[in-house]
Every structure is written in structure tokens, then in C-alpha cells.
Amino acid sequence: QVQLVDSGGEWVQPGGSLRVSCTNSQGTFNGKDMAWFRQVPGKDREFVAARRRDGHVYFRDSVKGRFTISRDNSRKTMYLQMNNLAPEDTAVYYCAAGLVILSRTRDESAYYYWGQGTQVTVSS
């Protein structure tokens, strides 16, 4: 069973860093594909990063080199570390989980478990 809880979002200045977390209150992430998406009002939710069950990671181009994704199975938690944040990173960030074929890694409709979202605001 999977029940995801997102946390860690807050206000941060441009150039700053922030780590958001996703905890599975029902167990570990073993055997599951995990991802982060984000959404701003009036726009579609967009893919940010994924860590597949085989350990491979994927990022959208605009966050490559700035964001990293990791997980701690002992704490049943996945993290998105965000560095050098910019105002365009402002969004509600959602974690997602599922069993996803490789070609749909970036497709939000392929994931069937979702966190409630956590707000990240980047502004001066």
C-alpha cells in the first residue's frame, strides 16, 4: 500500500537551496518508480525528475545540474534537493509513485499514487 505525504516547501530567495520530501506512510519505495512533478496555477502539471526502480534518474532539461533526486528506504522517504533556485521554479511540487514503463516516465497519467503537494516559492 502507498500513501504519500509531501513536505518541506517554503519561501526561498533566488539562488537559494531547498529540499522537499515525500514520505510513504505505508512502507518503503522498493519496487516502485518514483517521480516529482510541479504545477503553477493555470498551467498543466509538468515533470521535474524521476528515480526509477532500477535506480536510473531523469530530469527535465531546465533543472539538470541544479536538482537531484534520492531516496532513503530506512526512512521511507524520497527527496528532491533543489539548488540555485530561480523564480520560474515557483510551483506546488508533488511526488508520485507507480509501476511505469520507461517510455512513460515523464507522463503524469502513468503514476497512480500522489502526494498532496507542497508549495515552493522563489522570490526576493
Can you describe this structure?
This protein is an all-beta fold and 124 residues long. Helix content is 0%, strand content 45%. The protein has no helices and 11 strands. Strands 2, 4, 5, 6, 9, 10 and 11 form a 7-stranded mixed beta sheet that branches. The protein is globular, with a radius of gyration of 13 Å.
Average pLDDT for all residues = 95
Poorly predicted regions are none
Major beta sheet summary:
7 strands, mixed
Strand content: over 45%
Helix content: under 10%
| Strand tally | 11
Shape: globular
- Category by helix and strand content: mainly beta
**Gyration radius, rounded:** 13 Å
List keywords for this structure.
single chain; 124 residues; mainly beta; 45% strand
Annotate the secondary structure layout:
Layout: E1 4-7, E2 11-12, E3 18-24, E4 33-39, E5 46-51, E6 57-59, E7 67-72, E8 77-82, E9 91-98, E10 113-114, E11 118-122
Parallel strand pairs: 2-11
Antiparallel strand pairs: 1-3, 3-8, 4-5, 4-9, 5-6, 7-8, 9-10, 9-11
